[in-house]
Amino acid sequence: VSTQSTGMYSQNVTLMQTQKFSLRSEEFPTDRKAKKKSIDVRFIETFLSDIIKILSEPDSKGLPLDKQTMTIPIIASLGIMFTVYTENSIRPLHEVLQQQVHATVCNFSKLTQTFNTQQVRTWLLDHMHANPFTSKRCLMHGKTVYQKPGRPLRRSSDISIENGSTNTLTRCRVTVNDHETPKERRLLAMQYVSRQISVLSPETLLNHRVHVTHCNDASIYLLSSMKCISVKQCSRTTLVTGPISGTLYLTGCINMRIICIARRVVLRNCHSCRLYLLTPTRPLLLAGCNDITLAPYNTFYRGLAGHLSHANFSVSKNLWDQPASPMCKEGDNNKVFQKLPPENFHLFSIPFNTEGTTTGLVNKLPHPYEESTARARERVNKWYDSVQKCDLSETQTAQLAGTLQARFHDWLETTGNHKEIEALIRLRDKS
Hints:
The chain has about 425 residues and is an alpha/beta fold. It has helices at about 15-20, 35-55, 70-80, 95, 100-105, 115-125, 135-140, 200-205, 305-310, 335, 365-390, 395-415, 420-430, and strands at about 5-10, 70, 80-85, 90, 115, 130, 145, 160, 175, 185-190, 195-200, 210-215, 220, 230, 240-250, 255-270, 275-280, 285, 290-295, 335-340.
């Protein structure tokens, strides 16, 4: 951010084609590598005169640049490319230029309500900087929520438990930029979370944009109301979220299990992912997606109702089973996505307690899935009834319990789920 009173940064012009799916920029999570940021700035510096020439008033296009003028609506249209960050708040470009200190520099005429084109161009170039609100900057300069075992956490309720050798966590970072950004640009960045369970407190996540990158073999719980979530280059990870008022965007992900409530869901270049969704809009499967399995939202946590209210999210409409795949050829949809068979549908239990009043699913399951869960409950109840009817002695009960426990441990070892159980035990001890 500029040390001057006003700093301005270029919007992400390289992702404009993708951003057309979200009308409001704050709802769509975007990020760029450092080289892309410099490319954006250089592009605008090189072609700013041409852009202004196109937008200038028709009557002044034949005049020299220092004689041309720009109206307030033309300046407002430049706000598509620029966001102005001043005095710890974000303001529209045309409003900032009308402030006395800047209006004088840009030769603003109150009589004609116009600016001098040459002066506006000079002002833009003098105040333009790379975007200070990216996840890269957040990871480099943000406050650390979690880095690796043994480091103090930002809040006692922010817990990340390792589930493997410690050397895999040397690059793991979870940071926030709350200390240097306005509320509408608050960001939480999570990178290289590997072989562990990561739980962040609702207060840490509330109203944040979230970027999750390069995570694998992990379980991540983001149980709060958030603006948007971007998940990139992750694999073999379970991600459970609270209500997302904007977009959940997945790109380059493999073998993911996503359980989320989001106003929009967009996937690109994702393979073998299973999504349990509650969304009022059709999931969008863009180029490069295949073997995507869709199912209705299958979990709850005690604070969910409050977060739904905070996000102004209605659960009456769920279009999880009506994905749009505009990049697919006709007849190829079966290769891209399928609905989860009801017999393979199970409710997901969040393995820790949260504050709140929600005690069951907030969404109504489709009839086949409701029947499947009812049959599962019936099988469990039938098992308990059968055990009670056997009238076993204490010795026989102990033998049965021992046999069941041994079989359960065998299953944990075979599936690898014993690591998650061990991590959950450490999570309980840490909390």
